[in-house]
């Protein structure tokens, strides 16, 4: 019986709303009155729209802003990938790290435009020439199952795709996203498709599917709109003091790693839609023919009447608390009907509004930023009650400290009374983090991925944008309604989970917050992710151990059979142990060990692993922090390992000048195979002696990010004219610092024809470029992956 109840609760949570918290850079701030009233107005409408595309930054942020804030519909964006195959305009993070950044950029965008965010496990792998290539690399059936999962979980009335399933003159990922949306539209309603999901969700048939088309898809931007549906979305929102175009620009500008900053479109904006599946609307506005009112839900006929009573107070923007009693009355009315997914979601919105109407401020902070299993944790809960409303007031509160949803201890004494008007009260409680607590990074990075897919075993995590906060304070607030004419629940309760933050004060920036996190007692950070051996020469591996606990520990380095790790040339050792003492508080110690090849013929690509043993338990995690001003700080805990392989290559004693671009790891790779490399900084470009270099290389997107290249390109062309070799890597054709990037005029196109599996044809086998200093053959292109 207990398991049945647990399952029932899980279904309510999944079908009612997403359980994962949005991106938070700090504790949630209280809403202002205009925001509260805007959220109250959304209560009038019940309905859901799901927007589907391939990547972060593919979504139509103005349409999401309009649907969420003007029509008051629950709107979500499903991005099939996390954008980990793209470039990075901000730094040197790429691949999985870039995917983490772009995930947070999407979440920050949704926090602005009011949408929700979902993902599948599809890996972004760079520009794809065709949908067929994309669907092959992604494992189309697996991605389809995850699109179906999100549809069954979110239960949209309408699905909108950014791209067409038939239009081919675009990225293969784009077309594939629409093909999968089309298939999932009907598969979500078929109980024979992915039946394992039905343990948690029920089947669902959306009403309609549309393609959100645009002049962008047509030659010269000329689009025949005669047979298309259209919606005017350029609305102004007086309570928020901005238009949907202004909100959308702010939202889209969160995609800073992709250089997507944009200016707002104000005034009239028309979006066009092509019908693809399901119900065809009668009118030209696709949203006019759907019932987004409470009448669609049996038993909710009186809800609009109560909501009208709530909204009658919107003329007094200084006192939204007047609506508390009627909001509670609405909650009482809806509570018996919460088995309906739309009602359950509205109840959650309703409780958020009621809590904000009380004006109570809540903040939970930890005494430590990083905590380890077995560590002690102390949490301070601070409550401020700015105004004990005459319409309803917080009567009491119960608070418990939780790790992964499991209660560790109570923070407040039983039957704690809320502080009086404009008073602050604090509670402090401590506990021990269980030794069995798991160490995890971003959930989709915990298992080794396949070529085109992240692997996620936990079905309930699939689709979610990120891990839920692990350390939380669970609040149960008792709200007492005092109006004389109130006949509902006099002791109304609201439950909330408050993430626990670690707080510092910066003398320039002021208060700074970061989520309190659970980490290993120690992590092993290697100085490189790749060791390339061009000969039998010994290389040194450096390991920085960062510790968060105190006590003895053992560092273990293990190399593959064809390698040895020892300073003695005649001594073969595959395991290397170093005993040391951890000092905690994030202190660091550095160790190194010599690595060399003992069997050149058997040396195939493999991994060197680093672990740390503490109190009989081994930890194999490294440490990567990602910090940018526009997103919350991120912590990755990847497996501590180094790819190790041999490479037959001749380099000679060549000197390369390197101009850094948007961030890449090419200089250390060049050094690793035997070149000498000097970085030419932007400041040095006007005066550096270029003639001393055997070659100069411009980093990825250098002509997008280094303004000095505009003024010093002539010097580089003179170097080329005098016989020098200048290699310019990938640049985006948008926002180049100069159009003159070569010795002759050339125009960068955005048309790409990359196909990873196409056959390489050598036009001139005797050309020196194919023979000196290394002979290039067909074998060199085996396993080649773009970007």
Provide key terms for this protein:
single chain; 787 residues; alpha/beta; seven-stranded mixed sheet; six-stranded mixed sheet; globular; disordered N terminus
Write the layout of secondary structure elements.
Blueprint (H helix, E strand, L loop, with lengths): L1 H15 L16 H10 L5 E6 L7 H10 L3 E6 L16 H18 L2 E4 L11 H8 L1 H15 L3 E4 L10 H16 L20 E4 L17 E4 L3 E2 L4 E2 H9 L17 E9 L24 H9 L12 H11 L6 H17 L3 E6 L3 E2 L4 E10 L6 E12 L2 E5 L5 E2 L5 E10 L38 E11 L9 E9 L1 E6 L3 E6 L1 E2 L3 E5 L3 E4 L5 E9 L2 E9 L4 E2 L10 E9 L3 E11 L8 E9 L2 E3 L4 E3 L7 E3 L4 E6 L8 E5 L6 H7 L3 E4 L15 E4 L3 H4 L2 H14 L4 E3 L59
Parallel strand pairs: 1-2, 1-4, 2-3, 4-5, 11-21, 23-33, 34-35, 34-36, 36-37
Antiparallel strand pairs: 5-9, 6-9, 7-8, 10-12, 12-16, 13-14, 13-15, 13-17, 17-18, 19-20, 22-24, 24-28, 25-27, 25-29, 26-28, 29-30, 29-33, 31-32
Helix pairs in contact: 2-11, 3-8, 4-8, 5-7, 6-7, 9-10, 10-11
Descriptive notes:
Strand 29 and strand 30 form a beta hairpin. The protein is α/β, with parallel strands linked by helices and 787 residues long. The protein is 21% helix and 27% strand. The two termini are 53 Å apart. The longest helix has 18 residues, at 96-113. Helix 5 crosses helix 7 (172-187) and helix 10 packs antiparallel against helix 11 (341-357). It is built from 14 helices and 37 strands. The protein has a 7-stranded mixed β-sheet with strand order 3-2-1-4-5-9-6, with helices on both faces. Strands 23, 25, 27, 29, 30 and 33 form a 6-stranded mixed β-sheet that branches. Strands 13, 14, 15, 17 and 18 form a 5-stranded antiparallel β-sheet that branches. The relative contact order is 0.10.
């Amino acid at each position: 019986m207990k398991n049945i109840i647990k399952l029932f609760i899980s279904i309510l949570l999944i079908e009612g709303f997403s359980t994962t918290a949005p991106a938070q850079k700090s504790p949630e701030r209280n809403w202002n009155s205009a925001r509260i009233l805007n959220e109250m107005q959304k209560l009038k409408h019940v309905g859901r729209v799901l927007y589907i595309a391939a990547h972060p930054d593919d979504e139509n942020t103005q349409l999401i802003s309009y649907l969420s804030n003007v029509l008051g519909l629950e709107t979500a964006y499903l991005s099939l990938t996390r954008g980990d195959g793209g470039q990075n305009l901000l730094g040197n993070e790429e691949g999985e790290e870039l995917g983490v950044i772009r995930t947070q950029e999407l979440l920050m965008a949704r926090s602005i435009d009011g949408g929700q965010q979902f993902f599948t496990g599809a890996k972004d792998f760079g520009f794809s020439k065709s949908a067929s290539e994309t669907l092959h690399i992604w494992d189309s059936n697996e991605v389809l199952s995850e699109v179906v999962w999100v549809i069954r979980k979110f239960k949209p009335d309408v699905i909108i795709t950014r791209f067409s399933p038939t239009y081919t003159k675009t990225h293969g990922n784009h077309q594939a996203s629409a093909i999968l949306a089309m298939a999932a539209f009907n598969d979500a309603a078929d109980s024979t498709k992915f039946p394992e999901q039905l343990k948690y969700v029920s089947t669902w048939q959306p009403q309609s599917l549309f393609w959100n088309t645009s002049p962008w898809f047509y030659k010269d931007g000329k689009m025949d709109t005669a047979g298309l549906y259209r919606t005017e979305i350029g609305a102004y929102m007086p309570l928020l003091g901005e238009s949907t175009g202004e909100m959308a620009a702010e939202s889209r500008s969160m995609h800073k790693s992709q250089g997507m900053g944009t200016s707002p479109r104000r005034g009239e904006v028309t979006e066009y839609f092509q019908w693809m599946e399901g119900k065809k609307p009668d009118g030209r506005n696709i949203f006019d023919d759907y019932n987004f009112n409470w009448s669609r839900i049996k038993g909710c006929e009186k809800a609009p009447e109560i909501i009208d009573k709530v909204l009658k107070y919107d003329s007094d923007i200084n006192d939204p608390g007047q609506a508390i009693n009627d909001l509670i009355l609405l909650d009482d009315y809806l509570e018996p009907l919460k088995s309906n997914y739309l009602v359950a979601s509205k109840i959650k919105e309703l409780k958020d509004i009621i809590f904000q109407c009380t004006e109570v401020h809540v903040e939970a902070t930890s005494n430590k930023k990083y905590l380890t299993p077995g560590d002690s944790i102390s949490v301070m809960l601070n409550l401020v009650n700015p105004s004990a409303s005459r319409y309803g007031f917080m009567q009491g509160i119960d608070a418990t400290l939780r790790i992964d949803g499991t209660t560790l201890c109570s923070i407040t004494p039983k039957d704690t009374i809320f502080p009086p008007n404009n008073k602050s009260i604090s509670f402090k409680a401590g506990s021990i983090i269980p030794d069995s607590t798991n160490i995890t990074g971003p959930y989709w990075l915990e298992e080794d991925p396949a070529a085109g897919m992240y692997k996620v075993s936990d079905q309930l995590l699939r689709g979610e944008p990120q891990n839920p906060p692990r350390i939380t304070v669970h609040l149960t607030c008792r709200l007492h309604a005092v109006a004389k004419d109130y006949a509902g629940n006099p002791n109304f309760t609201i439950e909330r989970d408050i993430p626990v933050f670690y707080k510092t004060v910066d003398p320039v920036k002021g208060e700074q917050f970061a989520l309190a996190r659970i980490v290993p007692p120690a992590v092993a950070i290697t100085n490189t992710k790749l060791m390339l051996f061009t000969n039998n020469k010994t290389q040194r591996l450096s390991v920085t151990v960062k510790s968060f606990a105190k006590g003895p520990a053992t560092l273990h380095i293990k190399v593959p059979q064809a390698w040895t790790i020892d300073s003695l040339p005649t001594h073969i050792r595959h395991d290397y142990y170093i005993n040391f003492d951890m000092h905690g508080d994030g202190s660091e110690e550095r160790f190194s060990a010599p690595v060399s090849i003992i069997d050149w013929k058997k040396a195939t690509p493999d991994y060197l692993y680093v672990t740390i043993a503490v109190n009989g338990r081994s930890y194999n995690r490294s440490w990567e922090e990602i910090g940018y001003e526009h997103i919350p700080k991120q912590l990755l805990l990847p497996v501590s390992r180094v790819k190790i392989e041999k490479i037959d290559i001749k380099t000679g004693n060549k000197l390369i000048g390197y101009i850094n671009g948007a961030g890449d790891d090419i200089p250390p790779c060049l050094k690793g195979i035997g070149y000498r490399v000097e970085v030419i900084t932007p400041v040095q470009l006007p005066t550096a002696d270029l003639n001393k270099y055997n070659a100069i290389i411009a980093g990825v997107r250098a002509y997008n990010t280094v303004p000095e290249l505009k003024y010093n390109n002539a010097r580089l062309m003179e170097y080329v004219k005098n016989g020098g070799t200048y290699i310019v890597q990938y640049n985006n054709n948008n926002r180049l610092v100069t159009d003159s990037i070569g010795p002759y005029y050339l125009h960068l196109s955005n048309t790409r024809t990359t196909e990873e599996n196409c056959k390489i044809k050598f036009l001139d086998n005797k050309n020196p470029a194919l023979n000196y200093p290394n002979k290039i053959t067909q074998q060199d292109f085996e396993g080649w992956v773009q970007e």
